[in-house]
Specification:
The chain is an alpha/beta fold and about 350 residues long. It has a single domain (about 1-345), classed as Alpha/Beta hydrolase fold, catalytic domain (Rossmann fold, 3-Layer(aba) Sandwich). About 25% of the residues lie in helices and about 25% in strands. The chain contains eleven helices and eleven strands. The protein has helices at about 1-5, 10-15, 95-100, 115-120, 130-145, 145-150, 175-185, 260, 295-320, 325-330, 335; strands spanning about 40-50, 55-65, 75-80, 105-110, 165-175, 190, 200, 210-215, 235-245, 270-275, 340-345. The strands form two sheets. A nine-stranded mixed sheet has the order 1-2-4-3-5-8-9-10-11, sandwiched between helices.
Length: about 350
């Protein structure tokens, strides 16, 4: 069951009565909606979106809430999830399924730097040839293609059609996808002018109202400066941990906190988890070459439970305007859920 992967032992009973749409009240348990949600989840494993401007096809996976008797006019918020470099639309499947079970349509694109896409491009020289502007265009294409997506979803077409709410769209991303998410909500990035001189500018899309940044980037990244976040008014949640390192990146657990530290105050959150590795938010504890597991099973359950609680509460707060979700983010429940291994900062 999903709760076994995302939650903590004994947590399911305590939170099972906490349902969408309006939050349904808070439980005394420190986890937030860790039991599977009230909605069955429909999945379109592969849908091809065509971008004639770039002469490119983008494969996406769609997860969405299904109703046996859909109510006409029901509108569900949308979350676009941008995977990390080399990773396909199969990433974070348990977490995005969990969001869908609580009433979110989730669309995960496969970017051009993914392993499946690179297999079709034999001329790619580098193992991770990441084009962030192309990635940004992919998530914008998703937002542009919602009419097409709805036609493939059960209950989203016909006489009693539900729909995706175009006014409530969030974006999340992990690793390289975290920079895609930052760019999408308007974080300013350094781009070259025709003269060759760099220019710091926003290339965001106003349709993305909020963002979750998992294993993100700070000023170590050449596209970002200390001023990149100073005009950003939209809410975001930054998630990182003490072991959030990968060999191909110079980012550190300290630099990954900089989007929060340098952002203007207002609706900004930082979740820092002691012991969390780069892959552990997804539920994978990487085994190094020496065979020693970096994350114990208990800590892995804690990390995924905290990640699930924080992310769903954030979406409920900023895409649903749910008062219980706002209260949860303002409380110390995430710290309690982690057994004191998580820190939460707000501004």
């Amino acid at each position: 069951m999903l709760v076994a992967a995302l939650g903590c032992p004994g947590m399911a009973t305590a939170v099972a009565g906490t349902h969408h749409r309006s939050g349904g009240g808070r439980s005394d348990a420190p986890g937030y909606k860790l039991a599977p949600g009230p909605w069955a989840v429909g999945v379109i494993d592969r849908l091809v979106l065509k971008d004639p401007r770039r002469h490119k096809n983008v494969d996406v996976t769609v997860r969405y809430p299904r109703e046996k008797r859909p109510k006409a006019g029901t509108a569900w918020p949308l979350v676009v999830f941008s995977p990390g470099a080399g990773v396909s639309r199969a990433t974070f499947s348990e977490l995005t399924t969990h969001w869908a079970s609580y009433g979110y349509v989730v669309i995960v694109p496969t970017h051009g730097d993914s392993v499946p896409a690179r297999a079709l491009r034999p001329n790619v020289r580098r193992s991770f040839d990441v084009d962030q502007l192309d990635r940004l265009a992919d998530v914008v294409l998703v937002a542009d293609s919602l009419d097409q997506v709805e036609k493939k979803m059960d209950g989203f077409h016909g006489r009693h059609a539900m729909r995706i709410d175009r006014d409530r769209i969030g974006i999340a991303g992990h690793a390289a996808g975290a920079l895609t998410a930052q760019m999408a909500i308007g974080v300013k990035v350094r781009l070259s002018r025709r003269s060759g001189e760099p220019e710091l500018k926003s290339v965001g899309d106003p349709r993305f109202k909020a963002a979750i940044i998992i294993s993100g980037q700070g000023t170590i990244n050449r596209m970002l400066t200390r001023d990149s976040w100073d005009d950003l008014a939209r809410p975001f949640l930054v998630i990182t941990g003490s072991k959030d390192l990968v060999p191909i990146s110079r980012e550190t657990p300290e630099s990954r906190q900089e989007p929060f530290l340098f952002a203007r105050p207002g609706q900004k959150f930082l979740l820092f988890i002691e012991g969390a590795t780069h892959a552990s938010y997804e539920g994978r504890a990487r085994i190094p070459a020496d065979g020693v597991q970096e994350v114990t099973d208990a800590d892995q359950r804690m990390i995924t439970g905290v990640t699930s609680s924080a992310t769903l509460a954030f979406w409920d707060a900023y895409l649903e305007n749910d008062e219980h979700a706002h209260a949860y983010l303002a409380s110390d429940d995430l710290v309690k859920l982690s057994g004191g291994k998580a820190q939460v900062k707000r501004k």
